[in-house]
Design goal:
single chain; 410 residues; alpha/beta; Aspartate Aminotransferase, domain 2; Aspartate Aminotransferase, domain 1; 2 domains; 5-stranded mixed β-sheet; 14 helices; 14 strands
């Protein structure tokens, strides 16, 4: 039997979506959502939604406010601006990849003035540059600092406590807004302890749900800014969503019923494991992926985008191979192993041949050791089949990281 006759034979069974969102939805969440439509006026749904709010705050490590929107992350971005800024206001955008650029472009589209510090595609935010920019803002024109905690395109992880310390050192009163869409419930994040005023996130990554819900967590300082605005678009206004007088005001209309049941199940899973344990699991599995990638890179072709482990997300790893190697590997894995890797968003334009030199591994939310080891083994099989140079012993290195982590009680 020739290669052409067997192509795809090993891709049967349950496929694995190893992209950085939407992430794998657990069967328990799918089961919770698989039900008849509930009564949206009284009864079990209303009682259940009241339990979501404190449990969401426990994940964000905050005693502040939370608002839920039927939206993706872009909708949550817009809601953050709508409640805190007016056309003509200035924001400072700290960019570490495509999603930082996207958030800043949305600010422009909403009539805001944008000052940008672009740290490139392979570096985190430099707090010293943030402090210098805010000290230079003598007239206090900057109303908010936009910081992407993890940029999903580059896998860059930025130090939010250090950014807050830089803002405090400058004496600047701007709000600190954090895009946590990729990092929420994956990378450690502590809203209150770190002095963050607004968190933007969504349902489809660390919260282990389908896309469809955008979430905002906001401090009392941010709430006070909202109260000072003369006009906020009614749908995006977080005031009643965070403190509803009637149930429908949580969502400004009909509730996203089945998503809410899914969220209840997902939060149950997170809190049964424990948020600290969730963070530790993501850290251990990420380090296993990095260990394998370090060994593969000894062959001279593959490299991780973020050189310093301290600057890498525990939710997504961005990598490269000489073009068109990354695309070749992705296509081989999907056709022959049932594994889908993420494309290299924002690293090059799709029309540029270099675009085919980047890929990403998502390892967020509902992931465990055998899922990660399976992806790594599939990648190694693909590189071998495609005759890509790579170092030997990567799978053993990843397994050793996991074994040592388990021995230490992680």
């Amino acid at each position: 039997m020739g290669i052409s006759d067997t192509q795809g034979a090993l891709a049967g069974g349950r496929s694995y979506l190893a992209i950085p969102g939407p992430s794998v939805v657990p069967d328990r969440v799918l089961s919770a959502m698989h039900r008849a439509s509930p009564n949206i006026y009284q009864g079990a749904l209303i009682d259940m939604v009241d339990t979501l709010i404190p449990d969401l705050k426990r994940v964000a490590r905050t005693d502040a406010h939370v608002a839920i929107y039927m939206a993706n992350g872009h909708g949550a971005w817009e809601a953050a601006f709508a409640n805190t800024l007016a056309p003509g206001d200035t924001v400072l955008a700290l960019v570490t990849g495509r999603f930082g650029l996207g958030w800043s472009q949305m600010a422009r589209d909403m009539g805001l003035e944008v000052e940008t510090i672009d740290f490139g595609r392979a570096s985190p935010i430099d707090p010293a540059q943030v402090e210098a920019a805010l000290r230079a803002d003598k007239d206090r024109k900057i109303k908010a600092v936009l910081a992407t905690h993890v940029d999903t395109s580059t896998s860059a992880l930025s130090d939010m406590p250090a950014i807050r310390a830089a803002m405090d050192a400058s004496g600047h009163p701007a709000l600190l807004m954090a895009d946590c869409i990729a990092s929420f419930a994956c990378d450690r994040f502590e809203m209150d302890a770190w002095g963050v005023d607004v968190i933007v996130t969504g349902s489809q990554k660390g919260l282990m749900m389908p896309p469809g819900l955008g979430l905002l967590f906001f401090s009392e300082k941010a709430a006070e800014v909202r109260r000072g605005l003369s006009r906020v678009s009614p749908y995006w206004d977080w005031t009643l969503r965070a403190n509803p007088e009637e149930f429908y005001q949580y969502f400004f209309g009909t509730a996203p019923t089945h998503h809410l049941y899914g969220m209840r199940a997902a939060l149950d899973m997170i809190h049964e494991e424990g948020v600290e344990a969730v963070w530790a699991r993501h850290d251990l599995l990420a380090r296993a992926i990095w260990a394998a990638s370090d060994v593969w890179s000894e062959g001279g072709a593959l490299r991780m985008n973020m050189a310093n482990p301290a600057h890498r997300s525990r939710a997504v790893t961005a990598l490269s191979l000489p073009a068109p190697g990354a695309s070749d590997l992705r296509f081989w894995l999907e056709a022959n192993a049932g594994v889908t890797l993420g494309v290299g968003l924002g690293m090059a334009e799709p029309s540029d041949p270099a675009w085919h030199g980047f890929f990403r591994i998502g390892h967020m939310g509902h992931v465990n050791a055998h899922m990660v080891l399976g992806v790594l083994a599939s990648i190694e099989a693909g590189m071998s089949a495609l005759k890509m140079p790579h170092g030997q012993g990567a799978l053993g290195a990843a397994a050793q990281v996991i074994a040592e982590g388990q021995a230490q009680g992680v």
